[in-house]
Amino acid sequence: MKLNIVLFEPQIPQNTGNIARTCACTGARLHLVGPMGFPIDDKKLKRAGLDYWDLLDITYYDTIADFYEKNPDAVCFYFTTKARHTYSDMSYPDNAYLVFGREDAGIPEEILLQHPESCVRLPMLPYLRSLNLSNTVAVGAYEVLRQWNFPELQNYGQLHRYHWDEED
Fold first, then answer.
1. Does pLDDT of 162 surpass 60?
2. Beta strands in 36-154 (DSSP E)
3. Is the pLDDT of residue 108 over 80?
4. Domains of the chain with bracketed CATH
């Protein structure tokens, strides 16, 4: 099973680096859709992603239209504060695409209006604007992986036993 994380026009390199690290640790593909608010070789981006960049399956797109043209059959779930459904209400198919918008503007409203049943939100207090983008991506990614019973991640704990797991 494969998970896809899509960032539309990310603006903050540290968020993108943290998301790249989450993708590397979970085996998710990362799709970066421009224009981005920073150069891809930004030191802050590399630092936040640590030494995981070579472990990423990453694709770059010039524009949102370019993303849709190259992924015509993508089953997308749009994360937004404007959704009726919560992220945990959905059932995510294999090869799902979790789509996240700019830190300052979110996903363009015309896209949300075209896909109202695929828009999801994380519950939060009503008087706050939004969660941090990299935190939202992590919550969404791990919900999908939980529904899929953590494919390819399941045996990690058995391979790395800690001293408290051993009998004396």
1. no
2. 57-61, 75-79, 85-86, 96-100, 119-121
3. yes
4. 4-165 (3.40.1280.10)
In this predicted structure, the answer to whether residue 88 has a pLDDT above a threshold of 80 is yes
Q: Which residue is listed with tokens 């695409």? A: 97
Query: Which residue do the tokens 């941090």 mark?
Result: 132
Question: Can you point out the beta strands (E) in the chain?
Answer: 4-8, 29-33, 57-61, 75-79, 85-86, 96-100, 119-121
Q: How far is CA 53 from CA 12, 20, 44, 57, in A?
A: 17, 7, 13, 9
Check: CB of residue 35 under 8 Å from CB of residue 167. Answer: no
User: Rounded to whole angstroms, how far apart are CA atoms 91 and 111?
Assistant: 21
DSSP string, 156-168: HHHHS--GGGS--
| Average pLDDT rounded to a whole number, residues 149-153 | 87
pTM higher than the cut 0.70: yes
